[in-house]
Amino acid sequence: MKLWKKILLTALSLTGAYFFCEWQTQGFRFYHLLSDLPSAPEWEIPASAAQIESVNALLDQPFTYVGKGGFCIAFLGKDGKTILKFYRHEHLRLTSALKPFSWRALLLKPPSHLSAFSDFHAFAFKSCSLLYQRIQERTGLLYVHLNKTHMLKNSVTLIDPSGVAHTIDLNQTEFVLQQKAELLLAALDRTMHRGEVEKAKRMIDSYFNCLVELSGQSLRDLDRSFRYNFGVLEDGTVITIDISSFVHDPRILQPSFYKRELVLKAHPLSKWLKKHHPTLYTYYDEKITQLMD
């Protein structure tokens, strides 16, 4: 009986240590940024010498972890204006959800074999490539690196959630550089509390323009999320922060299909405005009615 108590106590201690590490690191693992994917012609995006020089200048600063989504892990530059996003080289499966504990994870070590999830990456890379080449101004994308290269600054310093510094060779992994944008709802809320109603209306105009321009490029967003997917740049331009869920779909050029998509994408904003800023909701309602007509 004493032996079983010791075993149970040890198991509980190890489990507690594992979840404490997860909490401290917010699930971050440096090896998730490392890539063993081969280069492919379809992901080759040419860059001029001047652009590479500009990119290297932006990379000449430390970047601090700010969060992660389904496809990417994001870091904010010291300048407060530049986001460095890495593609996650791991992906949740049912088996991993059922078996969360492992000794290697407890010791913060990489798995013995890093698998390349080709379908997962191909979908994300295709979306990013489409956005960058067709409508860069509505994404805030500054540079896209989907193949291995040798032209970039040798290494960049990354600060993880627990404050530990890492260095990574950007030539050997996939990433994008993107302008930092304030989340749309936060920007609208702040602007309204300052009494800048006209400025808030211009943000709504820009949001609708963003949706219209994306549709005009036959780009359809498969992600129905809203709160964390749209942001506002310093100049008031609304962009899609999410760059990994778009597909080329010519059907969206058809009026009936386009209107349905527009209503679906705008509905979360209408609910939020109706609850938090009813006067601004009236403007929103007039705007979407014009677009429907």
Give a verbal description of the structure.
It contains 9 helices and 12 strands. The chain is an alpha+beta fold and 293 residues long. The strands form 3 sheets. Strands 4-7-3-2-1-5-6 form a 7-stranded mixed β-sheet, with helices on both faces. It is globular and about 65 Å long. About 13% of the residues have low confidence.
How large, in whole angstroms, is the Cα Rg? Answer: 22 Å
Cα(first) to Cα(last) distance is: 76 Å
* Strand percentage: 15-25%
Low-confidence stretches: 17-26, 91-117
User: What is the H/E string?
Assistant: HHEEEHHHEEEEEHHEEEEHH
How is the main sheet built?
7 strands, mixed
Helix content: 40-55%
Report mean pLDDT, rounded to a whole number: 84
- What is the topology, as strand order, of the major beta sheet? 4-7-3-2-1-5-6
Task: Give a brief outline of the structure.
This protein is α+β, with helices and mostly antiparallel strands and 293 residues long. It contains 9 helices and 12 strands.
Keywords, please?
3-stranded antiparallel β-sheet, 17% strand, alpha+beta, 293 residues, 7-stranded mixed β-sheet, globular
Write the layout of secondary structure elements.
Blueprint: H1 2-25, H2 49-58, E1 63-68, E2 72-77, E3 82-87, H3 94-98, H4 103-106, H5 118-134, E4 141-145, E5 156-159, E6 165-168, E7 175-179, E8 182-183, H6 184-193, H7 197-216, E9 219-221, E10 230-232, E11 238-240, E12 246-248, H8 255-276, H9 278-292
Helix pairs in contact: 6-7, 7-8, 7-9, 8-9
